[in-house]
Design goal:
288 residues; alpha+beta; 10 helices
């Protein structure tokens, strides 16, 4: 295994990979180093509100894979249109790390002393909790990359049914939740970088720039038409896609340059809790 020591290189080489070579192994020492990266993640009030279950026995990997095969089928049945992928590749992992969040530690975060601010602080405490877990998950993924391996982040373990199945299999209380599942393995093929917004589009200096604001229509377009390609194509710069103009159409500049919003108008909040447009994904949901 070739280790990567340059931190920026580690960040850029981190990739969500879903095709692993069969028959590989990983040492206990490597797994400990990877988990230790998660242990050093920042957390609200230094609560360290996470636990890490490392699954490295083949029998347990197979049982965990079955949980996620069932989860993937539920996506097909009940979340029609989402560009899900098969979870069969989990059987070829050398280990799977489950990151568990313990909600009791939210009591250590700021709490309102008056009814007026109760909702505000409760919402903020939930954000602190989730950010703490996200930091741990990201650290682990970077640790995997530094060890010369690759991984992905399966968020489906946070679904109630999947979490219940995992808690029964792994033995943690069902009122805790598996917020991240990280399969680790040797990539079956080298993968390039996924699409990234241009730095000058998401970087704002000293104030938020309205010209870099992504409009409601652009979000709708991404969900309904662009998402399956942006999620899985191996190319960082979207303008290098061979069918860039065909796929992007009128939104080509908005997704490849600094300026997303020429008129610099900011919009009022709208409901984005569910898909809102009639794109390919929404039509598929209706047909199935």
């Amino acid at each position: 295994m070739k280790k990567i020591n340059n931190f920026i290189e580690v960040i850029k080489k981190r990739r969500s990979v879903r095709k692993f070579e069969k028959g590989k192994t990983i040492s206990i020492e490597s797994l400990k180093r990877i988990v230790d990266c998660g242990r050093w993640a920042p957390s609200g009030a230094n609560t360290q509100c996470f636990d890490f279950v490392v699954i490295n026995e083949k029998n347990m990997i197979n049982k965990t894979t079955k949980v996620f095969l069932n989860q993937a089928q539920r996506l097909v049945d009940f979340a029609k249109g989402f560009p899900a992928v098969s979870k069969n590749y989990l059987a070829n992992t050398v280990a799977i790390i489950i990151v568990i969040g313990d909600p009791r530690w939210k009591v250590c975060f700021p709490h309102a002393s008056t009814k007026m601010f109760e909702k505000e602080y409760n919402d903020n405490n939930e954000a602190i909790f989730l950010c703490s877990l996200g930091a741990a998950i990201q650290n682990i993924q970077l640790g995997v990359t530094a060890e010369g391996l690759t991984s992905a982040w399966l968020s489906g373990s946070g679904e109630e049914k999947t979490n219940s199945d995992l808690s029964k299999l792994l033995g943690y209380p069902n009122w805790m939740k598996a917020y991240g599942t990280i399969p680790i393995g040797y990539p079956a093929k080298t993968q390039n970088k996924r699409y990234r917004r241009p730095l000058e589009q998401c970087l704002h200096w000293n104030k938020y720039e309205p010209k870099q604001y992504r409009t409601h229509s652009q979000v709708d377009f991404y969900e309904s038409a662009l998402r399956p390609f942006a999620m899985y194509r191996d190319e960082e710069q979207i303008e290098n896609w061979p069918d860039f103009k065909e796929k992007l159409g009128i939104w080509a500049n908005a997704f490849s340059s600094q300026i997303c919003n020429k008129n610099e108008k900011l919009e009022r909040k709208q409901n984005f809790s569910k898909p809102r447009t009639e794109g390919r994904s929404t039509r598929r949901r209706k047909l199935q």
